[in-house]
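Supplementary Note 2. Why include the ligand at all?

Several targets in our set were suspected to adopt different conformations when bound, so apo predictions alone were not considered sufficient. For every target with a known small-molecule partner we therefore ran a joint prediction. The input for DAU is given below.
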Amino acid sequence: MPALPSPRRLLVTGGCGFIGSNFVRFWLHRHPESRVVVYDRLTYAGRRENLTGLWGHPGLSLVVGDIADQAAVRGACQENGTDLIVNFAAESHVDRSILGPLAFTDTNVRGTQVLLEVARELGLRLHHVSTDEVYGDIPEGRRSEETSPLSPRSPYAASKAAADHLVGAYHVTYGLPVTITRGANTVGPYQHPEKALPLFSTNALLGEPLPLYGDGLQRRDYTHVGDHCRGIETVLLRGESGQVYNVGTGEEITNREMARIVLETLGGNQGLVRHVADRPGHDRRYAMNVDKLRALGWEPGCGPREAVARAARWYAANRWWWEPIRGGEFRSYYRRQYAHRLTGDAGVPSPDVSGGE
Ligand code: DAU
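The joint prediction is reproduced in token form.
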């Protein structure tokens, strides 16, 4: 099947979020002739500051809106002659999905379906940014392929899996041109400090404990956001309609090792690691086979250890970005999520982050 036509006018939903803003920056740098409309609700994690230095670029504009608002999405697409919707917009934090799951269904499931409806009405292509979490917990020795069954285990993962199914269904039923990428645990600049890597980095910089869930031996494929964005670009330029592509390094490290690298990189004391009560239903391992994306000519630029170190260095160099976030609403979230964990007994082994994993 021939590759899809190269996109020129993009509506990037969630373009002020973590991966979305990195993608917008990357795309406009690589494709300065194209036009990008960022469509974002500007929630706690979607921030104008994430595109600092880019506002004023002739190819960039912002529409503030909800992806679940069909008229607003349609209007933004029509006004800008959009040919491709790239959907990064999502409620993305597993821990928040455990505290309040309904918002995840509203945005991740209904919101994605609204985008599909608009794409269907206006004859647009849609690329959907998904996650390795849809495959569920992967036993040692196995890797998820794009055709593996979906087995999500958190409200967040379930909402993303539902969205993936809807995207697939619109392709089959209506012939809508769609592609999906399923990304591994992504790290890098502008990731909200509620997520493990920026939380650990900023806590290390503040001399505060790093709350490691359970025994910390869960395995994740920490992938640098730059590699993730290049993976999406590869699919946008050379992917096949109706196909799913995994994006990751193809290698995993434990969360203990991630914490150790963060502290080593930032010169923090390894004794700052605290084993705390685990996340309910915590998946032990995510691991994907990324050969399908490799076959399109993409390679990760670095493995998980370097990705973690590079990301940690960014937080050390960019306090201007995260200090105001940590001073705001984040404080009450942090108390709710961690106060009992950091004061109580997690009932797990004492910290040992020095050993091999
Ligand atoms: O794998 C892809 C997914 O990666 C994305 O779909 C999600 O949107 C993204 O948030 C991320 O999900 P995780 O649950 O893996 O990310 P998080 O940064 O929350 O946690 C990474 C690992 O670290 C996970 O095993 C849980 C653990 N963790 C997390 C936090 C916040 C801790 O040990 N302590 C913590 O305080």
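The chain is about 40% helix and 15% strand. Confidence is low (pLDDT under 50) at residues 346-357. Comparable summaries for the other entries are listed in the accompanying table.
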